[in-house]
Amino acid sequence: MSHDNSKHTSRRSLLAWGGAGALTAATVSLGSGTASAAAYPASGSALLVPSARLDLNSPAENWIREKATRDTTIIQAIGYDNVNRHIYLTQVTQGGLQLSGESAPVSAADRNKNGDLTVTKWDMAGNTLGYMYLRGFGHGASIGVEPVGSKAYLWTEVDSVTIEDKPGEFSSRGTRLARFPFVSGQVLNKTSSALTKYTPVPGSTRNGVSIDPVYGRLVVRYRDTDNVTKYQVHDLDLARLNNWTKPLAAISEPSLTAIPGWPITTYGKPFHQGFASVGRYLYMLHGNSYGSTQTINGQTVVISQTGQGNTFLSCLDLATGDFAPAAPSPWVNSVNPCHTKAAYTLEYREPEGLAVYVPDIDQPGVFSLGMGFASGASGARRASIYGKSVLIQP
Protein backbone atom coordinates (compact mmCIF):
# COMPACT_ATOMS: atom_id res chain seq x y z
CA MET A 1 0.00 0.00 0.00
CA SER A 2 1.44 3.35 -1.02
CA HIS A 3 1.00 6.47 1.08
CA ASP A 4 0.67 9.28 -1.43
CA ASN A 5 -1.81 12.13 -1.09
CA SER A 6 -4.09 13.80 -3.59
CA LYS A 7 -2.58 17.23 -2.91
CA HIS A 8 0.86 16.21 -4.15
CA THR A 9 0.66 18.66 -7.06
CA SER A 10 1.24 21.59 -4.69
CA ARG A 11 4.88 22.71 -4.60
CA ARG A 12 4.78 25.07 -1.62
CA SER A 13 7.86 24.16 0.39
CA LEU A 14 7.43 22.97 3.95
CA LEU A 15 10.73 24.54 4.85
CA ALA A 16 11.55 28.08 5.85
CA TRP A 17 12.85 29.52 2.59
CA GLY A 18 10.71 32.61 2.96
CA GLY A 19 8.69 31.71 6.05
CA ALA A 20 7.98 28.77 8.27
CA GLY A 21 4.57 28.11 6.78
CA ALA A 22 1.32 27.72 8.66
CA LEU A 23 1.32 24.88 11.17
CA THR A 24 -1.61 23.30 12.91
CA ALA A 25 -3.21 24.84 15.96
CA ALA A 26 -1.04 22.59 18.10
CA THR A 27 2.13 24.24 16.83
CA VAL A 28 3.36 27.76 16.25
CA SER A 29 5.00 29.65 13.43
CA LEU A 30 8.75 30.09 13.81
CA GLY A 31 8.98 33.31 11.80
CA SER A 32 10.34 33.97 8.36
CA GLY A 33 13.59 34.22 6.49
CA THR A 34 17.08 33.33 7.58
CA ALA A 35 17.66 34.08 11.22
CA SER A 36 20.41 36.54 12.04
CA ALA A 37 22.94 35.69 14.72
CA ALA A 38 22.00 38.75 16.76
CA ALA A 39 18.32 37.80 16.88
CA TYR A 40 18.90 34.11 17.29
CA PRO A 41 17.14 32.53 20.29
CA ALA A 42 19.06 31.19 23.25
CA SER A 43 19.95 27.53 22.99
CA GLY A 44 16.86 25.38 23.39
CA SER A 45 14.39 28.27 23.73
CA ALA A 46 12.75 27.77 20.34
CA LEU A 47 12.23 24.10 21.21
CA LEU A 48 10.01 25.01 24.14
CA VAL A 49 7.08 25.97 21.91
CA PRO A 50 4.21 23.49 21.99
CA SER A 51 4.63 20.77 19.39
CA ALA A 52 2.78 17.57 18.73
CA ARG A 53 4.57 14.27 19.19
CA LEU A 54 4.06 10.84 17.76
CA ASP A 55 2.17 8.27 19.77
CA LEU A 56 4.82 5.56 19.79
CA ASN A 57 2.32 2.99 21.01
CA SER A 58 -0.16 3.44 18.15
CA PRO A 59 -0.51 0.62 15.58
CA ALA A 60 1.96 0.40 12.71
CA GLU A 61 0.72 0.75 9.13
CA ASN A 62 2.02 -1.14 6.10
CA TRP A 63 3.01 1.57 3.61
CA ILE A 64 5.44 -0.15 1.24
CA ARG A 65 6.27 -3.84 1.37
CA GLU A 66 9.37 -5.55 -0.04
CA LYS A 67 10.30 -3.42 -3.03
CA ALA A 68 13.59 -3.49 -4.89
CA THR A 69 16.25 -0.78 -4.66
CA ARG A 70 19.01 -0.06 -7.17
CA ASP A 71 21.41 -2.50 -5.50
CA THR A 72 20.75 -5.74 -3.65
CA THR A 73 22.38 -4.78 -0.36
CA ILE A 74 20.60 -3.91 2.89
CA ILE A 75 19.13 -0.40 3.02
CA GLN A 76 20.64 1.84 5.68
CA ALA A 77 18.42 4.93 5.75
CA ILE A 78 15.29 6.50 4.27
CA GLY A 79 14.28 10.12 3.67
CA TYR A 80 11.20 11.87 2.27
CA ASP A 81 10.89 14.70 -0.20
CA ASN A 82 7.49 15.75 1.10
CA VAL A 83 7.08 18.49 -1.52
CA ASN A 84 7.80 16.50 -4.68
CA ARG A 85 6.53 13.21 -3.23
CA HIS A 86 9.63 11.04 -3.49
CA ILE A 87 11.55 8.74 -1.15
CA TYR A 88 15.34 8.38 -1.05
CA LEU A 89 17.09 5.30 0.33
CA THR A 90 20.78 4.71 1.02
CA GLN A 91 22.72 1.46 1.02
CA VAL A 92 26.34 0.34 0.77
CA THR A 93 27.09 -0.31 -2.90
CA GLN A 94 26.96 -3.99 -3.77
CA GLY A 95 30.07 -5.96 -4.61
CA GLY A 96 31.02 -6.90 -8.16
CA LEU A 97 30.13 -3.60 -9.83
CA GLN A 98 32.52 -1.60 -11.96
CA LEU A 99 31.54 2.07 -11.99
CA SER A 100 32.90 4.81 -14.22
CA GLY A 101 36.52 5.60 -13.42
CA GLU A 102 37.15 2.13 -11.96
CA SER A 103 39.57 -0.24 -13.68
CA ALA A 104 37.86 -3.41 -12.45
CA PRO A 105 34.85 -4.60 -10.44
CA VAL A 106 35.08 -3.76 -6.73
CA SER A 107 34.33 -6.33 -4.02
CA ALA A 108 31.67 -5.91 -1.35
CA ALA A 109 34.36 -5.80 1.34
CA ASP A 110 36.13 -2.94 -0.40
CA ARG A 111 32.87 -1.04 -0.98
CA ASN A 112 32.25 -1.24 2.77
CA LYS A 113 35.81 -0.27 3.60
CA ASN A 114 35.85 2.63 1.12
CA GLY A 115 32.46 4.06 2.15
CA ASP A 116 30.82 3.68 -1.27
CA LEU A 117 27.08 4.26 -1.24
CA THR A 118 24.10 3.86 -3.54
CA VAL A 119 21.10 6.21 -3.35
CA THR A 120 17.79 5.01 -4.80
CA LYS A 121 14.95 7.38 -5.62
CA TRP A 122 11.46 5.89 -5.25
CA ASP A 123 8.01 7.19 -5.99
CA MET A 124 5.56 6.99 -3.09
CA ALA A 125 4.61 3.43 -4.01
CA GLY A 126 8.18 2.13 -3.93
CA ASN A 127 8.88 2.12 -7.66
CA THR A 128 12.44 3.06 -8.61
CA LEU A 129 12.74 6.38 -10.46
CA GLY A 130 16.52 6.91 -10.36
CA TYR A 131 19.77 6.31 -8.54
CA MET A 132 23.20 7.75 -7.72
CA TYR A 133 26.52 6.27 -6.65
CA LEU A 134 28.62 8.04 -4.00
CA ARG A 135 32.26 7.06 -3.53
CA GLY A 136 34.11 7.66 -0.26
CA PHE A 137 31.12 8.97 1.71
CA GLY A 138 30.50 6.55 4.59
CA HIS A 139 27.98 3.95 5.71
CA GLY A 140 24.78 5.74 4.72
CA ALA A 141 23.16 5.32 8.12
CA SER A 142 21.20 8.57 7.73
CA ILE A 143 20.12 10.99 5.03
CA GLY A 144 18.57 14.45 4.94
CA VAL A 145 16.34 15.45 2.04
CA GLU A 146 15.91 19.16 1.29
CA PRO A 147 13.42 19.99 -1.49
CA VAL A 148 14.25 23.08 -3.52
CA GLY A 149 11.52 23.70 -6.06
CA SER A 150 11.16 20.57 -8.18
CA LYS A 151 14.61 19.31 -7.19
CA ALA A 152 15.97 17.61 -4.09
CA TYR A 153 19.25 18.34 -2.38
CA LEU A 154 20.60 15.51 -0.28
CA TRP A 155 22.57 15.82 2.95
CA THR A 156 24.84 12.88 3.81
CA GLU A 157 28.01 12.03 5.66
CA VAL A 158 31.22 12.36 3.61
CA ASP A 159 35.00 11.99 3.83
CA SER A 160 34.80 8.55 5.32
CA VAL A 161 37.38 6.82 7.45
CA THR A 162 37.66 3.07 7.80
CA ILE A 163 36.71 1.43 11.09
CA GLU A 164 36.99 -2.18 12.21
CA ASP A 165 33.54 -3.40 13.29
CA LYS A 166 34.89 -6.75 14.44
CA PRO A 167 38.16 -8.57 13.82
CA GLY A 168 38.72 -8.71 10.07
CA GLU A 169 35.48 -6.87 9.16
CA PHE A 170 35.60 -3.23 8.13
CA SER A 171 33.17 -0.47 7.27
CA SER A 172 33.39 3.28 6.95
CA ARG A 173 31.93 6.39 8.63
CA GLY A 174 31.89 10.03 7.58
CA THR A 175 33.82 12.78 9.34
CA ARG A 176 31.93 15.68 7.73
CA LEU A 177 28.59 16.43 6.04
CA ALA A 178 27.91 17.10 2.37
CA ARG A 179 25.03 18.73 0.48
CA PHE A 180 24.47 18.08 -3.23
CA PRO A 181 21.64 17.89 -5.79
CA PHE A 182 20.28 14.48 -6.69
CA VAL A 183 21.19 13.75 -10.31
CA SER A 184 20.03 10.36 -11.51
CA GLY A 185 22.75 8.15 -12.95
CA GLN A 186 25.60 10.25 -11.59
CA VAL A 187 28.68 8.73 -9.96
CA LEU A 188 29.85 11.27 -7.40
CA ASN A 189 33.26 11.19 -5.76
CA LYS A 190 33.90 12.70 -2.33
CA THR A 191 36.20 15.25 -4.00
CA SER A 192 33.58 16.40 -6.52
CA SER A 193 33.00 20.13 -6.99
CA ALA A 194 29.27 19.38 -6.94
CA LEU A 195 29.52 18.92 -3.16
CA THR A 196 29.25 21.58 -0.52
CA LYS A 197 31.00 20.24 2.57
CA TYR A 198 30.45 21.18 6.20
CA THR A 199 32.17 20.50 9.50
CA PRO A 200 29.51 21.09 12.18
CA VAL A 201 31.71 19.74 14.99
CA PRO A 202 35.48 19.81 14.30
CA GLY A 203 37.21 16.59 15.31
CA SER A 204 33.97 14.59 15.37
CA THR A 205 33.47 11.18 13.77
CA ARG A 206 30.50 9.06 12.68
CA ASN A 207 28.60 12.10 11.43
CA GLY A 208 24.95 11.65 10.48
CA VAL A 209 22.19 14.03 9.46
CA SER A 210 18.42 14.35 9.41
CA ILE A 211 16.08 17.20 8.45
CA ASP A 212 12.96 18.28 10.33
CA PRO A 213 10.65 19.20 7.42
CA VAL A 214 8.01 20.82 9.62
CA TYR A 215 10.16 23.36 11.48
CA GLY A 216 12.98 23.74 8.96
CA ARG A 217 15.80 22.34 11.09
CA LEU A 218 18.80 20.13 10.60
CA VAL A 219 19.91 17.58 13.18
CA VAL A 220 23.51 16.33 13.33
CA ARG A 221 24.37 13.09 15.10
CA TYR A 222 28.07 12.62 15.79
CA ARG A 223 30.64 11.11 18.10
CA ASP A 224 32.82 13.64 19.90
CA THR A 225 36.49 13.44 20.84
CA ASP A 226 35.54 11.79 24.15
CA ASN A 227 33.76 9.00 22.20
CA VAL A 228 30.32 10.23 23.33
CA THR A 229 27.45 10.17 20.81
CA LYS A 230 25.61 13.49 20.69
CA TYR A 231 23.01 15.45 18.74
CA GLN A 232 22.89 19.09 17.75
CA VAL A 233 19.84 20.84 16.29
CA HIS A 234 20.40 23.75 13.92
CA ASP A 235 18.29 26.12 11.87
CA LEU A 236 18.45 24.71 8.33
CA ASP A 237 18.93 28.13 6.75
CA LEU A 238 21.95 28.78 8.95
CA ALA A 239 23.35 25.29 8.39
CA ARG A 240 23.18 25.80 4.65
CA LEU A 241 25.18 29.01 5.13
CA ASN A 242 27.76 27.05 7.16
CA ASN A 243 26.84 28.77 10.44
CA TRP A 244 27.01 26.17 13.21
CA THR A 245 27.69 28.53 16.12
CA LYS A 246 24.12 28.78 17.45
CA PRO A 247 22.66 25.31 17.97
CA LEU A 248 19.05 25.26 19.12
CA ALA A 249 19.77 22.17 21.20
CA ALA A 250 22.74 19.99 22.09
CA ILE A 251 22.21 16.70 23.92
CA SER A 252 23.98 13.42 24.53
CA GLU A 253 22.35 10.24 23.28
CA PRO A 254 20.98 8.18 26.18
CA SER A 255 21.27 4.41 26.16
CA LEU A 256 18.16 2.26 26.09
CA THR A 257 19.90 -0.23 28.35
CA ALA A 258 20.30 2.46 31.04
CA ILE A 259 16.53 2.49 31.58
CA PRO A 260 15.65 0.83 34.92
CA GLY A 261 14.21 -2.60 34.37
CA TRP A 262 15.52 -3.00 30.82
CA PRO A 263 15.25 -6.76 30.04
CA ILE A 264 18.75 -7.10 28.63
CA THR A 265 18.65 -10.90 28.59
CA THR A 266 15.62 -10.65 26.27
CA TYR A 267 16.51 -7.75 23.95
CA GLY A 268 20.24 -7.25 24.51
CA LYS A 269 21.70 -3.93 23.39
CA PRO A 270 19.79 -3.09 20.19
CA PHE A 271 21.76 -1.31 17.47
CA HIS A 272 20.96 2.31 16.69
CA GLN A 273 19.30 2.25 13.26
CA GLY A 274 17.99 5.76 12.59
CA PHE A 275 16.77 9.08 13.93
CA ALA A 276 14.34 11.83 12.97
CA SER A 277 13.06 15.02 14.55
CA VAL A 278 9.98 17.24 14.59
CA GLY A 279 9.83 20.32 16.80
CA ARG A 280 10.79 19.65 20.39
CA TYR A 281 11.14 15.89 19.97
CA LEU A 282 13.73 13.57 18.50
CA TYR A 283 12.89 9.97 17.64
CA MET A 284 15.28 7.03 17.57
CA LEU A 285 14.99 3.58 16.00
CA HIS A 286 16.89 0.63 17.47
CA GLY A 287 16.97 -3.06 16.67
CA ASN A 288 18.73 -6.05 15.14
CA SER A 289 17.93 -8.60 12.47
CA TYR A 290 16.15 -11.81 13.39
CA GLY A 291 18.47 -14.35 14.95
CA SER A 292 21.08 -11.82 16.07
CA THR A 293 23.05 -12.85 19.14
CA GLN A 294 25.05 -11.02 21.79
CA THR A 295 27.16 -12.23 24.71
CA ILE A 296 25.35 -11.37 27.94
CA ASN A 297 26.66 -12.42 31.35
CA GLY A 298 29.08 -14.77 29.61
CA GLN A 299 26.40 -16.53 27.57
CA THR A 300 25.39 -16.26 23.91
CA VAL A 301 21.81 -14.98 23.78
CA VAL A 302 19.47 -14.56 20.78
CA ILE A 303 18.30 -10.97 21.25
CA SER A 304 15.96 -10.72 18.23
CA GLN A 305 13.60 -13.66 18.11
CA THR A 306 11.81 -14.44 14.83
CA GLY A 307 8.29 -13.00 14.87
CA GLN A 308 9.12 -10.80 17.85
CA GLY A 309 12.35 -8.93 17.23
CA ASN A 310 13.97 -6.28 19.37
CA THR A 311 12.93 -3.19 17.39
CA PHE A 312 12.23 -0.16 19.56
CA LEU A 313 11.01 3.36 18.86
CA SER A 314 11.84 6.02 21.42
CA CYS A 315 11.24 9.73 21.86
CA LEU A 316 13.68 12.24 23.38
CA ASP A 317 12.78 15.69 24.67
CA LEU A 318 15.36 17.95 23.02
CA ALA A 319 14.90 20.57 25.74
CA THR A 320 16.12 18.17 28.44
CA GLY A 321 17.93 15.35 26.63
CA ASP A 322 15.82 12.79 28.48
CA PHE A 323 13.32 10.24 27.26
CA ALA A 324 10.01 12.06 27.10
CA PRO A 325 7.52 10.79 29.70
CA ALA A 326 5.04 8.32 28.28
CA ALA A 327 2.14 10.51 27.16
CA PRO A 328 -1.57 9.72 27.59
CA SER A 329 -2.48 7.22 24.91
CA PRO A 330 -5.53 5.09 24.10
CA TRP A 331 -3.25 2.11 23.57
CA VAL A 332 -2.64 -0.42 26.29
CA ASN A 333 0.68 -0.27 28.15
CA SER A 334 1.77 3.13 26.85
CA VAL A 335 5.57 3.24 27.19
CA ASN A 336 8.64 5.06 25.89
CA PRO A 337 10.78 3.41 24.49
CA CYS A 338 8.16 1.30 22.75
CA HIS A 339 8.72 -2.18 21.34
CA THR A 340 7.22 -2.59 17.86
CA LYS A 341 6.45 -5.75 15.92
CA ALA A 342 5.86 -3.79 12.71
CA ALA A 343 6.65 -5.93 9.66
CA TYR A 344 7.18 -8.95 11.93
CA THR A 345 6.34 -11.42 9.12
CA LEU A 346 9.30 -10.34 6.98
CA GLU A 347 12.04 -12.85 6.32
CA TYR A 348 15.27 -11.59 7.94
CA ARG A 349 13.70 -8.22 9.11
CA GLU A 350 16.20 -5.62 10.22
CA PRO A 351 15.07 -2.07 11.08
CA GLU A 352 16.96 0.44 8.93
CA GLY A 353 16.10 4.12 8.81
CA LEU A 354 13.62 6.59 10.25
CA ALA A 355 12.06 9.58 8.44
CA VAL A 356 9.30 12.18 8.75
CA TYR A 357 6.45 11.94 6.26
CA VAL A 358 3.96 14.79 5.81
CA PRO A 359 0.83 13.45 4.05
CA ASP A 360 -0.62 16.87 3.18
CA ILE A 361 1.82 19.72 2.63
CA ASP A 362 -0.99 22.21 3.31
CA GLN A 363 -1.00 20.86 6.88
CA PRO A 364 2.72 20.43 7.67
CA GLY A 365 2.08 20.10 11.40
CA VAL A 366 0.28 16.79 10.77
CA PHE A 367 3.05 14.27 10.25
CA SER A 368 3.82 10.57 10.38
CA LEU A 369 6.99 8.60 11.00
CA GLY A 370 8.22 6.03 8.51
CA MET A 371 10.34 3.08 9.64
CA GLY A 372 12.51 1.30 7.10
CA PHE A 373 13.05 -2.46 7.18
CA ALA A 374 15.42 -4.68 5.21
CA SER A 375 14.34 -8.19 4.32
CA GLY A 376 15.06 -11.08 1.99
CA ALA A 377 18.02 -13.35 1.45
CA SER A 378 21.61 -12.14 1.22
CA GLY A 379 22.26 -10.89 -2.31
CA ALA A 380 18.57 -10.28 -2.91
CA ARG A 381 17.55 -7.80 -0.23
CA ARG A 382 14.30 -5.87 -0.38
CA ALA A 383 13.11 -2.72 1.38
CA SER A 384 9.86 -2.02 3.24
CA ILE A 385 8.46 1.03 5.00
CA TYR A 386 5.97 0.82 7.85
CA GLY A 387 4.63 3.91 9.55
CA LYS A 388 2.95 5.37 12.60
CA SER A 389 0.62 8.35 12.29
CA VAL A 390 -1.25 9.00 15.54
CA LEU A 391 -0.19 12.28 17.15
CA ILE A 392 -0.49 13.42 20.75
CA GLN A 393 -1.19 17.14 20.96
CA PRO A 394 0.43 19.24 23.72
UniProtKB/TrEMBL annotation:
Family annotation (InterPro entries): P68_RBP_TagC-like_beta-prop (IPR048799), TAT_signal (IPR006311)
Domain P68 RBP/TagC-like beta-propeller: 75-292
TM region positions: none
Superkingdom per UniProt: Bacteria
Keyword RNA-binding: no
Signal sequence range: 1-37
Pfam families assigned to the protein according to its UniProt record, in alphabetical order: Phage_RBD_prop
UniProt entry keywords in alphabetical sequence: Signal
UniProt name for this protein: Teichoic acid biosynthesis protein C
